[in-house]
Design brief:
The structure holds two protein chains of two kinds.
Chain A: E1 2-6, E2 11-15, E3 26-31, H1 40-49, E4 62-66, H2 75-83, E5 88-89, E6 92-93, E7 148-152, H3 161-165, E8 171-173, E9 180-182, H4 192-196, E10 202-205, E11 210-213, H5 218-221, H6 228-231, E12 238-242, H7 254-261, E13 266-267, E14 278-281, H8 288-295, H9 299-307, H10 313-320, E15 331-335, E16 340-344, E17 350-355, E18 366-367, E19 372-373
Chain B: H1 2-15, E1 29-31, H2 46-49, E2 52-56, E3 58-59, E4 74-81, E5 85-93, E6 109-115, E7 131-137, H3 138-145, H4 151-154, H5 180-183, H6 187-190, E8 204-209, E9 216-217, E10 224-230, E11 233-241, E12 257-265, E13 277-278, E14 282-286
Parallel strand pairs in B: 1-14
Antiparallel strand pairs in B: 2-4, 3-13, 4-5, 5-11, 6-7, 6-12, 7-8, 8-9, 10-11, 12-13, 12-14
Classes of the chains: A alpha+beta, B alpha+beta.
């Protein structure tokens, strides 16, 4: 075991391989306040990548409904149960990661889902946590009664557990973009990766008898195009980009800005120790205790910052660039004077410009030219 | 030196465990010469008179993940050669036949390891100390005995309306997917992974290795094999010509003594890859070819 630095848990940790970060790291931010669970991302991914034999059950991208949903069923609570209570001390994780909690002779603490666990990807959909008492009323921003959608893809972790667990090194992290892939010629279907990945995002193909996973749409990413699940999102909740190390963060890089500077986007289960690279803007209406379990101790700051977004032109501008171009936004700028935000490609070419606030048009109640009455709507 | 160090490590680990599985030096076996074609069949009458050896299998606790308490600890082994081919008959008790790999099940298997290099390490070889590994797999045997385990075989009640570019009609038998547009969705098949090939010629994969994690399918596949499960017991024959012209042929020939070691996997216990029961080296005295 080597000792590596994991900024998400604020400390060093044990990992089977030494720290080797890619030249660039694939990352994405999903705004959970905007996800409506329409599964367009799931279908985009499905029709692009998992229409082959043995992939019938596979969803490299899935959207589950928390608190009760999970694909596979109970993937997270079952691992949390195995780990037992693990404490945070402020922003430092004082408990054990899944590498540190590995049983004797194993590299990772994990479990293999049963086949039927994969069969209920919409279980718990739209089921609220708890019941509403008589006379109850809604509170803001945190609701007494809540549920939310959690869209999930492979986190293309800095310290992937799948890669750590593979005894044949058939899984590798691409040095050029940090995307984690399973070598389809080297894999022998041992499923150590399926067992090890705490997010259960490596899936076994029983026809081809090898394991497969989300490839971060690398053929698109190589051409400067964001992944399918990002570009097809009708709610514009997603943005893909590249993330720097915290000490190298630049304010004009979308991922750096959201993750490292404003800290509105948080990793999923950072306490597992993988340094996952899909970041979530937590849903403001959900019970904080639950969110802290999912996203760590940064939840309160993230929600506070997000709610103040209307007074933060840069954050507001950045959030408006979600889902407005299929190209990867390498850097962005906001123009408070004109109320616009713009995104730029690798060469600094402007690829998208959007109004942060749509202009108001006030039209007369009666349009004499067309002889119609109009209602003004927002 | 390296082998001895490892042996000490194994012994040390073994002593800390209960029940202690003894990894003592195995007795050797004299492999008789038979003046006949050896059928690839565990039921061949010639096996009745072949000498047998009990091989003990212990835990694999060198490479992670370990198998601290392997399911199968005893293997009955016979071997004969006819001057050109050497054949092994391996049998062991196993309460369940596991030949289908769903997402959460594993298959039974057995493997033979022979050094290619002059020196050999029990650690599936080492850098510069190559080994030959002949790996029989119950799921490959099932593919050959019945038919390739396609979706229709694995999940008889499953239904798919459509696969892109797939020829034919539901359930779209995979063996008919000869057009490249359809096959591009079958990654393992397209890149030549032996596991994913619908048409399997043999249930034994011939491989080479230079240490744990380096197992590589040989370019030339010369091994034959057949496994039969009956009355709670697997009986598997693995056969290979001594010399095939492959640079990875072991330096074995009639009249010589070569070390051979064995591994067994019990699918029902989730054993796969490094989770297996392993033997130490067993000396094989190959009888001279007679007339």
């Amino acid at each position: 075991m080597a000792t590596v630095k994991n900024w998400q848990i604020g400390r060093e940790m044990a990992y089977p391989y030494p720290e080797t970060r890619p030249q660039r790291q694939f990352a994405a931010v999903f705004d959970l306040n905007k996800c409506i669970g329409c599964q367009t991302c799931t279908m985009a991914c499905k029709t692009t990548w998992t229409v082959g034999k043995g992939q019938e059950y596979m969803q490299w991208n899935n959207v589950e409904c928390k608190p009760y949903g999970g694909y596979p069923m109970g993937w997270d609570v079952r691992l949390l149960e195995k780990l037992g209570p693990q404490p945070w001390e402020g922003s430092r994780f004082a408990g054990k990661t899944i590498f540190e909690a590995a049983p004797t002779g194993e590299r990772v603490l994990g479990f293999t889902p049963e086949e039927l666990d994969w069969s209920y990807s919409n279980a718990g959909e739209d089921e609220a946590a708890g019941t509403l008492d008589k006379g109850a009323y809604e509170t803001m921003p945190e609701h007494k009664l809540w549920f939310f959608y959690l869209p999930r893809i492979c986190n293309h972790c800095t310290y992937p557990a799948c890669l750590a667990a593979c005894p044949r090194q058939a899984i590798y992290k691409r040095p050029e973009d940090g995307i984690v892939v399973v070598d389809q010629s080297r894999c022998r279907g041992y499923r150590e990766c399926v067992k090890a990945c705490p997010y259960e995002k490596v899936l076994y193909n029983p026809v081809l008898r090898i394991s497969q996973k989300c490839i971060g749409c690398y053929p698109a990413v190589e051409q400067g195009i964001q992944p399918r699940c990002v570009t097809t999102c009708i709610g514009k909740i997603r943005l893909m980009g590249f993330l720097s190390k915290p000490e190298e963060a630049k304010a004009d890089r979308p991922m750096d800005f959201l993750v490292h500077l404003r800290k509105v986007a948080l990793p999923l289960y950072p306490q597992f120790g993988l340094e996952p690279n899909v970041y979530y803007i937590p849903p403001v209406s959900v019970r904080r205790e639950f969110l802290r379990q999912l996203f760590g101790p940064g939840v309160d700051h993230a929600i506070e910052t997000y709610l103040k977004g209307k007074d933060d032109p840069e954050l507001l501008g950045m959030l408006h660039l979600f889902g407005d171009t299929k190209e990867i936004i390498e850097s962005f700028r906001t123009f408070p004077a004109s109320g616009e935000a713009a995104g730029y490609d690798k060469k600094g070419r402007e690829i998208v410009r959007v109004p942060v606030k749509e202009p108001d048009y006030l039209r007369p109640f009666y349009d004499a030219a067309r002889q119609v009455y109009r209602h003004n709507i927002s | 030196m390296r082998t001895r160090k490892l042996f000490v490590t194994i012994t040390a680990v073994a002593l800390t465990m209960a029940p202690v599985i003894v990894l003592a030096q195995q007795k050797g076996l004299t492999v008789p010469f038979v003046k006949t074609v050896i059928p690839v069949d565990p039921g061949w009458t010639g096996w009745k008179t072949a000498p047998a050896l009990e091989v003990l299998l212990g835990p694999q606790v060198i490479a992670q993940p370990w198998a601290l308490t392997p399911s199968i600890t005893r293997l009955t082994m016979k071997a004969v050669h006819n001057g050109t081919w050497i054949a092994f008959r391996l049998s062991w008790k196993d309460a369940t036949k596991n030949a289908v790999m769903y997402t959460d099940t594993f298959r039974d298997a057995v493997a033979i390891m022979v050094p290619v290099a002059k020196e050999a390490d029990i650690t599936m070889g080492a850098a510069g100390k190559r080994v030959l590994i002949l790996h029989w797999k119950a799921d490959w045997q099932e593919d050959i005995d019945k038919t390739f385990q396609d979706v229709a075989q694995l999940y008889p009640n499953a239904w798919a309306d459509w696969y892109p570019f797939a020829p034919g009609e539901p359930p779209y038998d995979i063996t008919a997917w000869t057009n490249p547009e359809a096959r591009r969705y079958l990654t393992g098949w397209v890149v030549g992974n032996p596991r994913s090939q619908p048409a399997k010629r043999t249930a034994v994969e011939e491989q080479i290795a230079e240490g744990f994690g380096t197992l590589t399918t040989s370019e030339r596949q010369s091994a034959a094999g057949k496994g039969v499960y009956a009355d709670g017991e697997w009986s598997v024959v693995i056969a290979r010509p001594f010399i095939t012209g492959d640079p990875n042929d072991p330096s074995w020939a009639p009249g010589q003594t070569v070390p051979v070691s064995f591994a067994v996997w019990d699918g029902a216990k989730g054993e796969i890859g490094s989770r297996k029961g392993i033997s130490t080296w067993v000396p094989f005295r190959l009888a001279r070819s007679g007339r």
